[in-house]
Write a structure and sequence with these properties.
Blueprint: H1 8-19, H2 23-30, H3 34-41, H4 49-59, H5 63-70, E1 84-88, E2 95-101, E3 106-110, H6 116-125, E4 130-134, H7 140-143, H8 146-152, E5 157-159, E6 183-185, E7 191-196, E8 205-209, E9 212-216, E10 219-220, E11 223-224, H9 234-245, E12 253-256, E13 262-263, H10 264-270
Parallel strand pairs: 3-4, 4-5, 9-12
Antiparallel strand pairs: 1-2, 2-3, 6-7, 7-8, 8-9, 10-11, 12-13
Length: 275
């Protein structure tokens, strides 16, 4: 069972950065000692139920869901996605995925990263015919094996948002640039839809394949990605999720860049960043 990407302290820290509230300001509004808040934000210890609920209000978090995170009361229910193969991206702590069609004869690889030899072994042992290499964003733990995979599967089309494409160097001119809402053909009657979800990076994108959503570092089980965009912001992440991801069908399976799979329904109900 994969651990959640973010525990209470991670959620607290992301919300503090996003709302621009430091421990002293939170202490003034909640009456909780600033040093305790700072300690929790470094993932040392956790608040009790009442403290978590008090902190949630100025941080614009859902009090009940944040209290659940503090008490580690929630973990997503298991989901089934038989057409998806997940693999770890060692030495990175990230998830990579292969989405299969027609019994594995056609495949889309999501986020090529980690030791190239390990990734190529997975692809070759599966005898995958890789048609697309889908990259969610520019960070190395999601794209640093792109060159090796592209060389091994020269017929595969690399897909990445233009704002992040510089991360793959000399391959950038070969990328198929897609815009928010664009769709790509993938097998009989299947299409890949790209959703531009800026905030974690300016070019952060999610991909919808049938009833599966690959979110990179935009949305995790019970959390959201940190805001590291040059132009986009924490508010952009939250808006992207509300307006583009949470409007997808409830049963949509979410495959994040870190941590366990979840569903849109579970995130609408349990993610503390959304009331």
């Amino acid at each position: 069972m994969l651990p959640l990407e973010d525990e209470f302290g991670d959620i607290l820290r992301k919300a503090m950065i996003g709302t621009r509230l430091d421990a002293h300001e939170l202490s003034k509004s909640t009456g909780i000692e600033a040093q305790r808040i700072a300690t929790w934000a470094h993932c040392e210890g956790h608040a009790d139920d009442g403290e978590a609920r008090a902190l949630a209000l100025p941080l614009h978090l859902d009090p009940g869901r944040f209290a659940d995170a503090a008490a580690a009361r929630w973990y997503p229910l298991a989901v089934e996605a038989p057409e998806v193969r997940r693999h770890s991206q060692r030495p990175h702590p990230s998830n990579g995925y292969v989405f299969l069609l027609h019994g594995g004869k056609r495949a889309a690889l999501v986020d090529p990263a980690g030791v190239p030899a390990n990734l190529l072994r997975i692809l070759r042992e599966g005898k995958y015919d890789v048609q697309y290499i889908l990259i969610t964003h520019k960070h190395a733990d999601h794209c640093d094996a792109t060159a090796d995979v592209a060389a091994a599967f020269p017929q595969a089309q690399i897909v990445m948002h233009k704002l992040d494409v510089h991360a793959i160097g000399s391959l950038a001119p070969k990328v198929l640039h897609v815009r928010d809402g664009d769709e790509l053909p993938f097998g009989d009657g299947v299409r890949i839809r790209m959703l531009h979800t800026p905030g974690h990076t300016d070019g952060s994108s999610c991909y919808v394949l049938t009833s599966t959503l690959f979110t990179g570092d935009t949305l995790f089980a019970g959390s959201v990605g940190g805001a590291y965009g040059d132009a986009s912001t924490y508010d952009d992440i939250l808006h992207s999720i509300r307006s583009k991801l949470f409007t997808l069908p409830s049963e949509t399976v979410v495959m994040p860049g870190h941590g366990p799979a979840t569903t849109i329904a579970q995130e609408r109900t349990h993610n503390p960043f959304f009331a």
